[in-house]
Amino acid sequence: MLNSKKLSIFAAIAAAGIATSLITPTANAVLPNLPTLTAGVLTIGTDDPAYGPWFDSNTPANGRGFESAVAFAVAKQLGYPASKVKWVKASFNSVIQPGKKNFDFDINQISITEERKNVVDFSSGYYDVAQAVVSVKGSSIAKAIKISDLAKVALGAQVGTTSLATINSIVKPSKKVAVYDSNDLATAALTAGQIKGLVVDLPTAFYIAATAKNAVLVGQFPAQAKSEQFGLVLSKGSALTSKVSAAVDALRANGTLKAIADKWLANVGGAPVFKK
Fold first, then answer.
1. CA 152 from centroid of its chain's CA atoms
2. What's the distance, Cα to Cα, between the start and end of the chain in Å?
3. Residue 271 — pLDDT band, cuts 50, 70, 90?
4. Can you list the pairs that 167-173 forms with residues at least 24 positions away whose Cβ atoms lie under 8 Å?
5. CA-CA distances (angstroms) from residue 18 to 24, 28, 83?
6. For the domain bounded by 131-220, which CATH number is listed?
7. Of 22, 62, 54, which is closest to residue 259 (Cα–Cα)?
8. CATH assignment of 4-128+230-264, among 1.10.3720.10, 3.40.190.10, 1.10.10.10, 3.90.1150.10
9. Considering the entire predicted model, what is its pTM?
């Protein structure tokens, strides 16, 4: 369970602003000649609502929150100041499906998988992911310590996610898994008692535990042999993929990604790990 000290930390994180060096336009900047959807503009997609700790106040363009900050940092690395960044809405499900996109790249906690690579391009990974379980106070799994403790209860996750894949491949539950169109709907089902546990990525689990009624963070799953990573999503065969990947790689190498994570995800490392 999150205590008041942890909640205050989340409040402080939410109140903090992104470092201005990440989003402040460079005076008289010469824009790169990249094949973006709109000449001279970098269009970035994400879901609606866009919630913490990835975004703040459902306003991706304000530069606040981990993914907003990463997006602006990538834009700057590519040569686009904040004034030349345009945000558009793109649902999670539409992003990972084949077809024409309304963005140059999308950032929305989307894990890189071989299956998804068949229909979209990914940048290099910008965040290493752990999956976790959220429940409610007093539930039969609120104090679960082993993966097997989760197998006999009703679990849920967002459709098409690696969270859902984690339930099916690692927990292997005896009950049918509840699948939801969004984490908001899944969280509502959890707090209404329709499911006992919700599987999401670890930072989102901390956020839900801090904000949803009676929610508690139960634990996280052990690291897998191959680490799961979030990547920026681009249209299949995009001419921008290699350049966006190079930008992400540069931000990892120069410490920018770590600095952004330290700022916005400072309190997401302490969840207990389920025993196998």
1. 28
2. 21
3. confident
4. 167/199, 170/221, 171/147, 171/199
5. 10, 22, 15
6. 3.40.190.10
7. 22
8. 3.40.190.10
9. 0.81
